[in-house]
Amino acid sequence: MVLLKVNIQKKFDDFILEKAWEVEKGEVISLFGPSGSGKSLTIQSIAGLINPDDGFIEINRELVFHKQKNIYCPSRDRGVGYVPQNYGLFPHMKIGENIMFAMKERDKSVKKKKMVELLNLVGLENKRDRYPHQLSGGERQRIAILRALAINPKVLLLDEPFSAVDIPVRKMLRKEIKKFLTQWNIPVVLVTHDPEDVEMLATKVVHYG
């Protein structure tokens, strides 16, 4: 079942992005290529952070962007979990608060229970009262992914998720994240320029650049 369809065009000065691809339920698609080839631009378009010049984006068989039909769904209503390169964690909030902030539930006890369940998935429940700067790069990355998953997203977007950690940690995290993502069975878009990320995690590859 196809749950994400992308067919977009975007122009910046002398750079033109034209891409069309789709992802099925449970697939991990890698947008693979060098820096400046439009990979991050693509997932920012999916997340609703920027608007392409033309084309369409369909999530879970619903159009969230269509230039010709004048459809521009706000980012908050797209059901997308987005993890940027810098993780996007709030430095003034504790880890548990960061995760609960993303949840749509209003009942605080329900949010807290869900937060604990998510942290237990990656063995970080004992870190919930710490601040982001008190965690390692690998721990911050896992928290950022948990926060993105806390909204029960239809699609998960990962922008260079291992770029901020060193090689030994990167190898460990690839294995951990691969196992973790299989539990959610949602389309995942992975932006990377590292062939090892593609080999370890991707079920489909779209080449950029």
| CATH third-level topology | Rossmann fold
Output the number of helix runs.
6
What's the story with the biggest beta sheet? 5 strands, antiparallel
Percent of residues in beta strands?
25-35%
Detailed description of the structure:
The protein is α/β, with parallel strands linked by helices and 209 residues long. The protein has one domain: Rossmann fold, CATH 3.40.50. 32% of the residues lie in helices and 27% in strands. It is built from 6 helices and 10 strands; from the N terminus they run E-E-E-H-E-E-E-E-H-H-H-E-H-E-H-E. The strands form 2 sheets. A 5-stranded antiparallel beta sheet has the order 2-1-4-5-6, with helices on one face. A 5-stranded parallel beta sheet has the order 7-8-9-3-10, with helices on both faces. Strand 4 and strand 5 form a beta hairpin.
SSE diagram, text form:
Blueprint lengths: L1 E11 L2 E10 L3 E5 L6 H9 L6 E6 L2 E5 L4 E2 L7 E4 L11 H7 L6 H14 L15 H13 L5 E5 L7 H16 L5 E5 L2 H7 L2 E4 L2
Helix pairs in contact: 2-4
Structure summarized in a few sentences:
It is built from 6 helices and 10 strands.
Key features of this structure:
27% strand; 10 strands; single chain; five-stranded antiparallel β-sheet; 209 residues; Rossmann fold; alpha/beta
